[in-house]
Amino acid sequence: MSPTQRQRRREAVFGSAPRPDAERPQRGLSGVVLDASPHLLVLHADGAEVRLAMREDTAVWYGGRGGPAALRPGRPVVVRKSSSVAEKVWVGIGRVGGTILACGRDTVEVDMGPHRGRAHVAIPPHARERVLVRHPRLEPGYLFDVICVRSPGGPQAVRPGTSQPGYRVDDLTAPEAAKPVPDVLHGTATWFGTTEGEVRDGASYPAVDSEGDAGGCADAPSACVPFPYLSLGGEVTVRNECRGRSATLPVIECGCAAARFCDRCVECAASPRGRIVELTPAAFAGLGGELEAGCFNAAVRPHVPRGVEAEW
Fold first, then answer.
1. Residue 214 CA to its chain's centroid (Å)
2. What SS3 state is found at 241?
3. Cα 311 to chain centroid, rounded
4. I want to staple 92 with a disulfide (CB 3.0 to 4.6 A). Which of 66, 150, 189, 274 is the partner?
């Protein structure tokens, strides 16, 4: 297939050409800081020591603006790198999303779904107003999604991960049964979890079949968009429509929590409603996503064999 044919096929599938920066190879990496200086970052990642060059323009996020001083030994990080150069580093970032169970003066208890359990999130005074602007209903039964930074006492909210949907979680309407399932899904890609313990890229998918050995949740809610069913270990090819990057990833978890969010991403335009995939932090960063922003506009093709995405 010629380059022109590959380009036409890519545009036919996704509707737009990739941005120029899509040609620069990047990768997301999760690890723990071993040592750092203004010019070198040393991590323990993927079971080995990894050395990455730090440039003057390497951005460091630690609850907001950061710098090399935040790269203390023992802290977990996510790095977006190009070759052996760190382009951006997120220190101690995490995310808590799900259904509100209870609220205190400055804490929220969240049910994150059957795979992720519950979390108690502290909302410090400096973040409270920012969170309330986009999450005005801190009441049981409503959805909650915040970007956090790790602390000895648990996750602390830094900013909202999305605008709070206006419905109670049990009021979400499922799509019409007769509505056709598209070959390529369009909507929002988000990320889930923390950096601790992550050793591989992967995706959480909202429609993992609950029958047999597929690995789905028997009580998973119906999402607001129609999905084809997949099994754990199946594959999805995800494209960041804002950056023009794509990758094929294994389905490693049932995205029960994602199915409850019928929201939009507005990173580069207003996406169609619905969270169609959640990615591990390293996978999200490697596709050009900004972890603190929380989402990117995405196109997802289920069951695409490895290697096909290179021809889009």
1. 23
2. coil
3. 25
4. 150
Cα–Cα distance measured from residue 287 to residue 218, given in angstroms and rounded to the nearest whole number = 31
Buried b (16+ CB within 10 A) or exposed e, 58-85: bebbbbeebeeebbeeebbbbbbbeeee
Structure tokens at 273: 């409603």
Q: Give 299's strand partners.
A: 186, 239
Q: How many Å apart are CA 65 and CA 180, to the nearest integer?
A: 45
Is 168 buried (19+), middle (13-18) or exposed (0-12) by CB count in 10 A? middle
- For residue 190 the two structure tokens come to 């988000």
Residue pair 85/52 in contact (Cβ under 8 Å)? The answer is: yes
Q: What Cα–Cα distance (Å) separates residue 259 from each residue in 78, 230, 236, 284?
A: 26, 14, 16, 18
DSSP 309: G
pTM of the complete model? 0.86
Name 27's bridge partners. 81
pLDDT in tens, the chain (312 residues): 444 444 444 444 444 444 444 455 679 999 999 999 999 999 999 889 999 999 999 999 999 878 889 999 999 999 999 989 999 999 999 999 999 999 998 999 999 988 888 999 999 999 999 999 999 999 999 999 999 999 989 999 999 999 999 999 888 776 666 678 888 999 999 999 855 545 568 999 998 988 888 888 777 777 788 888 899 999 999 999 999 999 999 999 998 888 899 999 988 888 999 999 999 999 999 999 999 999 999 999 997 334 434 333
